[in-house]
Design brief:
Structural class of chain A: alpha+beta
Radius of gyration of chain A: 28 Å
Structural class of chain B: mainly alpha
Largest interface: A-B, 97 and 101 residues
Strand order of the largest sheet of chain A: 3-2-1-5-8
CATH class of chain B: Mainly Alpha
CATH superfamily of chain B: Cytochrome c oxidase-like, subunit I domain
Shape of chain A: elongated
Distance between the termini of chain A: 62 Å
Shape of chain B: globular
Largest sheet of chain A: 5 strands, mixed
Strand content of chain A: 15-25%
Order of helices and strands of chain A: HHHEEEEEEEEEEHHEEHHH
CATH topology of chain B: Cytochrome C Oxidase, Chain A
Helix content of chain B: 55-70%
CATH architecture of the largest domain in chain A: Sandwich
Oligomer: heterodimer
Number of strands of chain B: 0
CATH architecture of chain B: Up-down Bundle
Strand content of chain B: under 5%
Number of domains of chain A: 2
Number of helices of chain B: 17
Number of strands of chain A: 12
CATH class of the largest domain in chain A: Mainly Beta
Number of helices of chain A: 8
Number of domains of chain B: 1
Amino acid sequence: MSHISPVIWQFLVKWMTNFALFPPEASKIAPQMDALYFFIALVSLIGLTIVVLLVVSFSILYSKKRHPVAEQIEGSTLLEATWTIIPLGLFLVMFVWGALIYFRVFTPPANAMNIYVVGKQWMWKAEHPGGQHEINSLHVPTGRAVQLTLISQDVFHSFSIPAFRVKREAIPGRYTTVWFEATTPGTYHLFCTQYCGTNHSHMIGDIVVLTPEDYRKWLAESTSGASLAQNGERLFASLSCAACHNARPDARGPSLANVYGAKLPLSAGGTVIADDAYLREAILNPSQHVTQGYAPIMPTYQGQISEEGVIALVEYIKNLDSDYRIQQTMNTNDLLPGSEGKTAPAGQPAAPKGMVKQ
Amino acid sequence: MSTDTILSLPDQSTARVPKLNFITKENGILSWLLTGDHKRIAILYLISLSFFFFIGGALAGLIRLELLTPQTDLMATDTYNKVFTMHGVIMIFFFLVPSVPATLGNFLIPLMIGAKDLALPKINLLSWYLYMAGGILAIYTMATGGVDTGWTFTTPLSTHYVNTNVLTTGLAAFIAGFSSIFTGLNFIVTIHKMRAPGMTWFRLPLFVWAHYAASVLMVLATPVVAIAIVLVALERTIGIGVFDPTKGGDPLLFQHLFWFYSHPAVYIMILPGMGVISEVISTFSRKRVFGYTAVAFSSVAIAVFGFFVWAHHMFIMGISNYAVLVFSLLTMLVAVPSAIKIFNWTFTLYKGSITFETPMLYAFGFMGLFTIGGMTGIFLGTSGTDIHLTETYFIVAHFHFVMVGGMLMAFLAGIHFWWPKMTGRMYPEKISQLAALITFIGFNFTFFPQFILGTLGMPRRYASYPPEFQILNVFSTAGATILGVGYLLPVLYLVWSLKYGAVAGNNPWQATGLEWQIQSPPLTENFTETPIMDHEAYDYEWLESQKAKEVASAG
């Protein structure tokens, strides 16, 4: 058999006996989306069959041999109305059904666990709230809603998990979200599906779905020693944010305690809900987002903090629940590498309990 | 033999191609390069379009070869990226957009409406020169390092992150855009102003209606992509920051601008093809197109709705969920007129007297493949399923079914159908029927597996892929080789027919259009006297009565 080309040989032996025709369903939304997929497929098949049957039977019945003289027919309003209204009705059913699924995929439940994902040429970096970092892989537990907050550091990327039937673009300068609940443990493909330059096809990875016990084990083994919020706290201290945002009566910047999710009045007029996107913007582009009662003196941090750094800061601010916590942060400089063993509260726990609300 | 074809050729022993026609009127290369004759310009387009099509096709062949194996073994990833980018740029801007309008539309619209030429012959020639300038610039770009942004020029990749020839490729598309605007403008003016006496709007062949709708799209949508390209160029050279988020720009704005053109562009490509199908199906079933008015207005409806669906390319890009609702709904609405057309063509066959010459076979191919292409568009217009299927090979398969299965089939149907009118000679029937069949089989082999690949999640624009996708890619590449044969054959036998084809006579298909009532190839001035349209389009009884009159007067 050596004279058969290796490609054909591989084709015959390996792939003819073992190849995929449909992706695994590994999330709660997958079977719902597949139901719609097969509904549209069925309608398409019926539509195609009707057209093909009509064309073939008319071709046989009214071929020139059998039917030498054509009968001129102007049209038929009734028939035309039929094939306008029936497809329209079917398309509208698909539209509504599809919209229901779309809204489900892009409306995360309130209790979802949030994981930040940063896309960059050409890798995916995941930041877990517990401080676990991953590159080109993502570990998630079954049975729990997981929300991904995505951003790109350079060009458009797209985070695609075919087995979950979810996909979301990672856009430069803007957070996007998507959520899923994994159902079946296993390892699945992660693809970047938005063309992003030279190594686009290498921007792939693994989605590892673990049972809740295995997931806990993985979390404990993969910790980097500090939670994401703690990383943010260090950054907050090292960038001297607390010089102004220190919650003192004479502070030059507004207090950041409980600011997340609050409605803020802006000096330019109007109000804004302080969500992830707003906090990010306020750090990178502060002059556009001055809170009422404060002078526009904050410098921009554009280009000085990586997207991961911004994420850590946002996560820290998210978890600030009292002015006391900010004042504590003012001493966090002591926690920075190189300044260990000073007045820091000894033995920071690896898990963020007590320090940061979960 | 006489019962299964409508072909009626003059007696070959005495028949000659008329000595004086638009081809023989003047000689020399300059008489072609400086011509104002719409028919000669159409021939110039046909030759240059075929050239670009085969370059684009060769690039497609390289893509399929690379994808034969999961690894990147034929070329490096950035070479692959350049190859698929140039394949897209050439096929879209230099083949699909101008294909039917610039060749068949140019040749036939004046003939069909009974005019001597297009309204603006010099503008018509200018648009060919612009097209050639753009095309040569694109080829030059490819030869001097290429470009790897994808034909979509997505920012900020195209503005900040690649160091290939983005500007020259953008300029090529920009110039080609003006060619398209001028062609559209010319058609609109001609159809409004130059119809023969009695040629009312509802006596126009549906081919003309389809071109009218496509021309409106060309004129209104193309400037937007021109603006988008200029903004990309300014952003890339002097960093104006319209699309750059670090300067307060919005990267999604580019997507909006780009798709505001590029979605209507899909209808610019397909509508003229639909016009061809209407003519072919009517002629080979000897019947007026079923529901003429519905088919005419469905072209207009497609053109109007076509403007308001662009954001369905952006469902997962973080536009508002409610915007997604609106655009998904409008996408469903634009699908309806296409469905209407398919059913109207089908019922044109009903009680007809059908023959199966090559153009009809291509038209049947169009109907089947366009139905699949259209229905899979519904999978993508449905917002829920779009999440899973977009940006995968499902998209690739979908638009190739519409563009190649639809448009290219229609183009080939039209070229075969009007070949006798354009050249005065017939193409060889048997081998061309075989070519139509090969194309259909090869096409399905190439692109149907890609629907399955897309459903499995294989992303588009990947130079390498996980090994479990290989078998379907092998099928696809095998199909592409069959398809390649199907496209090469017509070139060979059509060129052969220029010298050896049977003399066609005025009206080999016994078709009703005004273009068939004059000599083939036509005179430079088309009509010796201005025709008067005194009957409806597709009036085969009128044609019979004309023939009876001729026989009576000759006898």
